[in-house]
Design goal:
Elements (H helix, E strand, L loop, with lengths): L9 H11 L6 E6 L6 H9 L4 E8 L3 H9 L6 E6 L4 H5 L4 E4 L15 H18 L4 E4 L4 H15 L7 E3 L2 H15 L10 E3 L6 E3 L12 H12 L1 H9 L7 H19 L5 E7 L7 E9 L2 E5 L7 H26 L1
Parallel strand pairs: 1-2, 1-4, 2-3, 4-5, 5-6
Antiparallel strand pairs: 7-8, 9-10, 10-11
The structure holds nicotinamide-adenine-dinucleotide (NAD) and (2S)-2-hydroxybutanedioic acid.
Length: 338
Amino acid sequence: DPPNLQMEDAATVSRLNCRAKGGAAGFKVAILGAAGGIGQPLAMLMKMNPLVSVLHLYDVVNTPGVTSDISHMDTGAVVRGFLGQQQLEEALTGMELVIIPAGVPRKPGMTRDDLFNINAGIVKTISEAIARCCPYAIVNVISNPVNSTVPIAAEVFKKAGTFDPKKLLGVTMLDVVRANTFVGEILGLDPRDIDVPVVGGHAGVTILPLLSQVKPPCSFTPKEVDYLTDRIQNGGTEVVEAKAGAGSATLSMAYAAVKFADACLRGLRGDAGVVECAFLASQVTELPFFASKVRLGRTGAEEIYPLGPLNEYERAGLEKAKKELAASIQKGVSFARK
Ligand code: NAD
Ligand code: LMR
């Protein structure tokens, strides 16, 4: 029997039981903003993930109910709820992966940048707590505008002396998920068999699908390229308008967040060949942050892949993307240094 087992620590019991059954020990994951539109389905899906042994659910409202509800699911992860800023540090202590969907969503007519004034402060406060309580955790930032909130978190971590560029990842997975779906529709193929790299950032023209690099190899007419690029870049707005004031993408986002979090956990476990797109500190372009394909390993994004050959259409898109991205990054950095 394992020595020094604290019987009251159900999380430890769960990890050891899992190991005893021949499985790998799971990881400790926190969701911040867990009672929200994304947070609730994300919490449910993470409770179903066999790589998770402990799931901490933090929000400023409603976490007791969400936690009680999710804790009845007969899956391995032990769930604990945390309510209000006085419990933020407790929620974060010991976490190996922190997922952040905290903050306000768009309404029709708004850009993601219109969320900056509220969400920048939320991400800053949360990042300061992460630097204090779990400085080695991988951090997945979902809160918009991602093009600015990731630079904010980076500045906070730099100030605290804990910044590891491999571990701070802006979640752009939903752009890839949408691209795979829309390309699948055009090609008449199962979207699960399609891989579209989407690089740049996560807002409008900064979302740059590389349709010349779609796998399996295929070709599109210029009209199809225009249609697909526009639909992928404006997928978020499509949902915001359809929801007509009731928020933005939550269910497809929770799905995408779990797909990305699961990739991070498989990387942490040591699986080989885990490659996804993410927005992170990067030298792929002259900008300090950029989304591109990365290989996820035991220490986070261990390798960042170059963009590969771009056609003329994509080169023009890249220039546009970089211009807007540079301003959004600078806005985040200035806010955090203020
Ligand atoms: P929501 O309003 O339904 O939920 C947000 C949750 O955050 C709420 O439960 C709220 O109480 C909580 N919250 C607010 N302040 C907090 C704080 N200081 N600490 C912890 N929690 C706090 O919104 P949503 O639809 O879940 O969207 C959340 C964010 O995710 C938005 O900023 C949205 O734009 C963004 N988003 C990003 C992507 C992406 O692809 N990266 C996709 C969809 C949505
Ligand atoms: C999305 O892409 O769905 C999110 O960034 C939410 C939004 O505001 O569009």
